[in-house]
Amino acid sequence: MKAIFTSLTTLVFILTSVVSNAQKVDSPYEVGAWPGFRDATVSYTFDDGCANQFTKAIPLFDEFGYKITLYTVVNWSVNNWSKLQSAASNGHEVASHTLSHLKLTGVSLDKQLLELQNSRLEIDKKIPNAKCLTFAYPNCAVGDYGIVSQNYISARGCQGFIEGNTPKDFLNVSSLVCGTQSNLKTAESLNDKITSVIGSKGWLVFLFHGIDEDGGYSSFSSAEMRKNLEYVQNIDSKLWVATFLDATLYVRERNTANIQELSITPKLIRVSVTDTLDNSIYKYPVSFRRVLPKDWSEAEVSQNGIAIPSKLIADGIARKLQFDAVPDAGEVKIVKRGHTGASHLKRKK
């Protein structure tokens, strides 16, 4: 009976994923494949809570202003919770790597449920200001999809290829293992993969364990990591550095975005931005562009009465307004700059 239930759960998840990919965008709007219409995305993920992840990797990423994902083995984290709480408070993602780092292949469904559900609940208890919504398979051994989908919205595997701008399988998103046990040992090797993902306009997920020979698996040099981040910083306009969760949220919201122009007057454009997802989870801003009317030189944008950042993009002879809006967070208004309606907006904090 449990096997039948799990199979049905998996089928429902797959069908829901297919049906929900129903983007509908009115002309003349465009949706960015990635935030800010960047070309590609990279996520840096770290497993097992190795010592130098806290003393070297997190401070290094903080220095560059980038956020990482820390896949946490709950039973190994007794002395790490204050460090994980600090990381989460600074915008890094703390997510699940099971209770005990159990290899899930061949394990009973009851045991898998215990490992996946209880690790999520414990992380939510210890990190109360952020939901634990993603998962990484220990030893790359994929578990039961029904149980995974009951507890998480996406999961990381390690098949070794770069994903497209929508993963082939949200419950087994590919990553590339880095460090001494892989071909990715240097900044140059990481940079080559980043060049590749920009060319393919996809999503690249790096997987790290040990840093600077701290006893973790497949150690990677923090000096080489710094060189890589310096390279990434120089191509910031092309590459989004995102946690695994944020990338998942953006892709799903982008793929289900429905942007509809409600009305247009000489001084005001009213727009509806919605999606078909759970608003308690999916509330990440999606990037949009619209060609400005010919007699508009500038414009201001608001959502639900609050001003949101926007900028003009020159695209040949056309001038496009680019802005980020959260689906289902209220009506978007585009106001011709200089029109009195723009002066009454609340500024977004």
Q: Helical percent range? A: 25-40%
Element order: H for helix, E for strand: HEEEHEHEHEHEEHEHEHEEEEEEEEE
How far apart the termini lie comes to: 51 Å
What is the number of beta strands?
19
Roughly what fraction of the amino acids lie in strands? 15-25%
Structural class: alpha/beta
- Number of helices in the DSSP assignment: 8
Any low-confidence stretches, pLDDT <50, length ≥5? 1-19, 340-345
Radius of gyration: 22 Å
Mean pLDDT: 92
CATH names the topology of the largest domain as TIM Barrel
Shape: globular
CATH level 4 superfamily of the largest domain:
Glycoside hydrolase/deacetylase
Oligomer: single chain
CATH architecture of the largest domain, by name, is Alpha-Beta Barrel
Strands of the largest sheet, in order across it?
1-11-12-18-14-15-19
CATH C-level name of the largest domain: Alpha Beta
* Major β-sheet annotation: 7 strands, mixed
Q: How many domains is the backbone divided into?
A: 2
